[in-house]
TrEMBL record:
Name the UniProt record assigns to this protein: histidine kinase
Residues annotated as transmembrane: 7-28, 34-54
Entry EC no(s): 2.7.13.3
Species in which this protein is naturally found: Winogradskyella bathintestinalis
Keywords: Kinase, Membrane, Phosphoprotein, Transferase, Transmembrane, Transmembrane helix
Keyword Membrane: yes
One Pfam match: HATPase_c
An example molecular function term from Gene Ontology annotations: kinase activity
Length: 447
């Protein structure tokens, strides 16, 4: 190491100086004046040389510490001239300067990055000195929310708006607090929180505010849009088969009126069709009322329902329109006389959703087929399964299909399956899906 060379030469000079001093004593003792004078000159030279040797290192260190004191890290020490030990020292100083400049550069970049982020957010942030009121930092959102121009000291707000000053700056809000503040002729609600922190001997206060009126209005608007989307989706799901069944009944009536000899009017079929339309219409009204407060529903309109009756209603409602699309549909109950305590209208809505999804999945299949099967498993659970041999669901989106408003369809709303899941949860049941892309899917309603 370089310091060892420095110590060696320093020790060498000291030994040489001690040796010449002993020689001087000896020549004086022997009364050899000429030799004594020569040795004395040599001692003087060694003293000056040793002093210079030690001093130049301390001078170099003093220069470096002076630069550090005044934070002058741009100074460059010459590494290519002077004694070897000093050049080595200068190399170390330059390395320290480079490291400090890199650290400063990184800190400045992080500060600018953080500053840009805080300027972009719509949350107002300010930090100021508690004693002097001098603003350490503030973003534009803070002034925009409070409707005040940029200021360097909070006394500016005190002079302009003393009531606002007391509410924002003088009152402490250790926990997030929702308060109303008056701005000109209007009032807004803000969420405010603050904290005090210490930097050396100075105390600073950090205040964070957010205009929650705007946030609430935006959320309310989005909620209304989503609610309308959901209602439209579910109403269309029910109106389409009702319209198809009504059209079929109307055509049968028209044929019976025009050619009564060839087309006999079956009053039982007409009665069953009208009854189905009536029941589904009532179910649709019930759904609209229920969905309006679906998240608050605690008591369903439960009744003992035979699965055969449930399947007959769905079959009569859905079969004509599905067969018109060249899709085979079949209903089967493997265990006779199965019954459930359910809200029939809501479960009908679930089955309609699942069947329409199956129809959509099968639309490009040559031998499209949908099966609705009810059975009871070994755990005594009653399970209704909706099978299709359609396109299946890609594995990468399978986990998201029950997430509200998630959809992979170009015209989908993403609420049908999430609503089915919510209705099943209200019944203390669950909905399970298994799907293989290209082969089909099965949705299971487990009660």
């Amino acid at each position: 190491m370089n310091y060892r060379g420095y110590l060696f030469w320093l020790f060498f000079r000291i030994i040489l100086l001690v040796g010449t001093l002993l020689s001087l004593v000896y020549t004086v003792y022997k009364d050899k004046t000429i030799y004594a004078v020569i040795i004395g000159i040599g001692i003087l030279y060694l003293i000056i040389n040793t002093y210079s040797f030690v001093k130049r290192r301390f001078v170099a260190m003093d220069d470096f510490f002076e630069a550090v004191k005044y934070r002058d890290f741009s100074r460059w020490f010459p590494e290519d001239r002077g004694p070897k030990d000093i050049r080595f020292l200068y190399t170390g100083f330059n390395e320290i300067n480079r490291t400090i400049k890199e650290i400063n550069s990184q800190n400045e970049a992080q500060y600018v990055y953080l500053q840009k982020i805080l300027e972009m957010v719509d949350i107002g942030i300010i930090a100021y000195n508690l004693e002097s009121g001098e603003v350490l930092w503030s973003n534009d959102s803070f002034g925009e929310i409070l409707d005040v121009p940029s200021f360097k000291n909070i006394r500016f707000v005190e002079n302009r708006k003393p009531e606002l000053f007391n509410t924002i700056f003088e009152t402490f809000h250790r926990e997030p607090d929702s308060i109303s503040i008056a701005l000109q002729n209007d009032k807004i609600k803000i969420l405010i929180s603050d904290t005090v922190f210490q930097v050396e001997d100075d105390a600073f206060k950090l205040i964070v505010i957010q205009n929650i009126d705007d946030t609430l209005n935006r959320n309310e608007s989005e909620s209304w849009k989503k609610l309308l989307s959901v209602m439209t989706h579910e109403i269309m799901n029910s109106i389409t088969p009702i319209s198809s069944l009504a059209d079929t009944l109307q055509k049968n009536l028209q044929l019976a009126i025009e050619t009564p000899e060839e087309n006999t009017l079956e009053l039982d079929d007409i009665n069953s069709g009208i009854k189905t339309i009536k029941n589904r219409s009532e179910g649709l009204l019930k759904f609209a009322k229920t969905y309006r407060s679906l998240s608050k529903v605690t008591n369903l309109n439960l009744q003992r329902v035979k699965l055969s009756e449930l399947f007959n209603n769905i079959q009569l409602l859905m079969e004509p329109s599905i067969k018109a699309k060249n899709i085979a549909i079949a209903f089967n109950i493997t265990t006779p006389k199965l019954e459930l305590d359910i809200d029939m209208h809501l479960i009908e809505q679930v089955l309609i959703n699942l069947i329409l999804n199956a129809v959509d999945a099968c639309k490009n299949e040559v031998h499209a087929e949908i099966k609705i099967v009810a059975s009871q498993n070994t755990n005594r659970d009653i399970v209704i399964r909706v099978f299709d041999n359609g396109s299946g669901i890609p594995q990468d989106i399978l986990d998201n299909i029950f997430v509200p408003f998630f959809t992979s369809k170009a015209t989908g709303s993403g609420i049908g399956l999430s609503l089915c899941k919510q209705i099943m949860l209200l019944h203390k049941g669950r909905i399970i899906v298994k799907s293989i892309e290209g082969e089909g899917s099965v949705f299971s309603l487990v009660f």
